[in-house]
Every structure is written in C-alpha cells, then in structure tokens.
Amino acid sequence: MTQSITHACGTLRPILRVGLIGCGEIAQVAHIPNLNHMSDKFVTTYLCDVSQQALLHCAAKVSQGPPKTTRDAEVLCSSDEVDVVVIASADAFHVPHAILALKYDKYCLLEKPAALNYRDIDALIKAESSSKGKVFVGYMRRYSLAFLEAVKEVKEMQDIRYARVRDIIGPNSDFVDQSGTFPRRFDDISMEDINDLNERKEDIIDQALTKEFGVDATPFSKLILILLGGLGSHDLSAMRELLGMPKSCLAASFAPPGIWTALFQYDGFPVIYESGFNSIPTFDCCIEVLSDDKTVRINYETPYIKGLPITLTIRERVEGSFGSSGFQERVIRPTYEDAYNLEFDAFYECVLSREIPKTTVADARSDIDLYAMIFKASHAKATC
C-alpha cells in the first residue's frame, strides 16, 4: 500500500493503489472521477485496455499523476504497485479478469454482471475459494443510503400485499453527454481483439440460453439476456435484498425492441418487474412495496450525472381528528453522496478489514437463477 493519511479522528489509514481494467464509458464517466475525488482512500496507479488511445485518454484524466498503462491484464494484476483491482472491461471478460485478480490474491471490485451463466459464475466462485482476495460485485444501488433505509422499513412491514420494480430509461447517451465528463470512444482495436470478444460473447450466451436455460438462442433472446445482465441485474439484485428470492416466475413477456416484464410470486404477494428502454430522456426507476397501511418507495436517478437524488418515500395511514383518517408522506434523502462513492467506501472498508463483501459472487449467482426463471416462463408462454 502507498502512504497513509491521518483522518480527522486521528486514525492513520492507508491509501489503496488501484489498477483499473477497462477504459470505456463507465470508467471515464464514473470510476476515474470518483477515484480522483476519493484521493484520501485511493490512488489510480495502473490502467489496462486493448485500446492504446483509450489508455492515453484515461491516463490524462487521473488527477494524482500519470499511472502506468498496459494492454495485458495479468501485468496489471501481478504488479506490486497495485493493491486492489477495479474491473470495468467488456462483460465477456469480467470472469477471466476477476480470476486473474484472485490469482494474485487481490480484492477486486467487479462491475456487474459478474457472469451470465452458471458455468462461469461457478468458475469464479471456485477461484475465489483458493485465493486470499475477494470479489466485490458492483451493485452500487444496493449501497445507497436510501436503499439501506428502505430495507429496514420493509423488514418491519406486516403483510406485504404487492411490490413493483420498474426501470424504464431513455438512451444512456442523453445522460452521459450531459455528465460533464466528456467520454470518448476509440477505434484502434485490432481485429484479433474484436474477434476474441465476439467469440467469447457467443460462447457465454449459448451456454446460458441453450445449455442451461433450455431456450432457443435467437437474436432477440440473446439481446434480452445481455440487457438482463446489464440494466436488469441492478433491479433484480436490489429486489432480492429487499424481498428475498421469489418462489417462481409466473409469466414473462418480451416486447421488441427492448421492453420486458415478469410476474414473480412470493409467499403471499406478487411482484411485477418491468424494464427496458425508450427514446424519452427520462430515468423512470423505482422499487415500491405496499402493505395495508404503509407504502415504501425508493426513487433512483441516473448515476451518470453526479449528485442527483436517490430518495425514499414513505406513506402511512394516520388517524385524524373526530374519527377522520388520512395519510402522511415522508420524503427522505439521507445523503448528498452518490451511490458510486458509497460503494467505493464500502469496498475500501472491506479491503482494510479483509471482510467478505455484501455483494459477493455467490450472491450474484442468484441473479442467474432469476434470468433462468424469466426465460423459462417466457418460453412456456410461447409454446402453449
């Protein structure tokens, strides 16, 4: 570890040296700026990407001084100048890059999805079992304070009647272009690297859909699996922490070009899940849980514009004067810190204490159970 800093409480705490794999949009818009802001806890010392232009662009964005760069992820993971690894590479490389970090006994923050099929997630779990490092899966919405407050509220609710999970958003570019981070895409990637990526994606998707879920691997089903692993994993992971795993998926529907719904059955209540994309530049994202006398709702905003509110809204029945009844509504914004900062805070504490993170690989495996439920319910409907 690099130098330590004495914090206000008088505690001497180390600064962790970060190796970042993947210099694409999420690294440019979120990870590098947040690591720069959290310079009392992190310093970016190494970058890895297959694009030399992306490496040069992102190296200039690191505020603590130019990091080393490489096109070889193992060089970064094995470096004595890297304490922890942040993996923001293409989804198809999440597992192999995390396994490399574990090979060198390093904690890594792995962007979601951890994996899209059981074969790969189980390989990652096996690699972690023989390493001194751990994998912290990047479900940042689950680290927002509004979400953590909602978990407490829902645990106290009696007789939940219904819940809904909604995440329908406009084009990411509409938010990213206004983020003030000026991300760039580069085209200096070799055909060998492009072919490698495409072959890995096809293998991962075929393994999931055909061999594990037992559904046809059509262009549309492939797209839906990618979207479930991307946008969907945020919502489904949060749903699991808030409500647990459903007993079954009663029905699912996919509407081209990118809207999908699923009806989950819990013990005593249903949950409707609706997600997808349209062309309206809005971020319509919430989780809402209803009982007879209370409603708990988490409202998420786009993470690409720093500081937008994640709020908790609670509605409860109240008894008024002269026997009348009404309700009270509380809107709670516990902090101005965004979810990425809070996620990195939790990651930092995890590494220092050598603890097992909340969002483990084993936890992420349950998302694949949900993907399988959704696809099988949709397939059953289509073949009726």
Fold blueprint:
Layout: E1 4-6, E2 12-14, E3 16-21, H1 25-37, E4 42-48, H2 52-59, E5 68-70, H3 73-78, E6 84-87, H4 94-103, E7 108-111, H5 118-129, E8 135-138, H6 145-155, E9 162-169, H7 172-176, H8 191-213, H9 219-243, E10 248-255, E11 259-265, E12 270-277, E13 283-290, E14 294-300, E15 311-319, E16 325-332, H10 339-353, H11 361-383
Parallel strand pairs: 3-4, 3-6, 4-5, 6-7, 7-8, 9-12
Antiparallel strand pairs: 1-2, 9-13, 10-11, 11-12, 13-14, 14-15, 15-16
Put the structure in a nutshell.
The protein has 384 residues and is α/β, with parallel strands linked by helices. The protein is built from 11 helices and 16 strands. The protein is 39% helix and 25% strand.
Short key terms for the protein model shown above:
alpha/beta, 11 helices, single chain, 8-stranded mixed β-sheet, NAD(P)-bd_dom_sf
Structure description:
By secondary structure, the chain is of the alpha/beta class. The protein contains eleven helices and 16 strands. The chain has helices at residues 25-37, 52-59, 73-78, 94-103, 118-129, 145-155, 172-176, 191-213, 219-243, 339-353, 361-383, and strands at 4-6, 12-14, 16-21, 42-48, 68-70, 84-87, 108-111, 135-138, 162-169, 248-255, 259-265, 270-277, 283-290, 294-300, 311-319, 325-332. The strands form three sheets. The chain has an eight-stranded mixed sheet with strand order 10-11-12-9-13-14-15-16. A hairpin with a 5-residue loop joins strand 1 (4-6) and strand 2. The protein is globular, with a radius of gyration of 22 Å. The N and C termini lie far apart (59 Å). The model has no long low-confidence stretch (mean pLDDT 93).
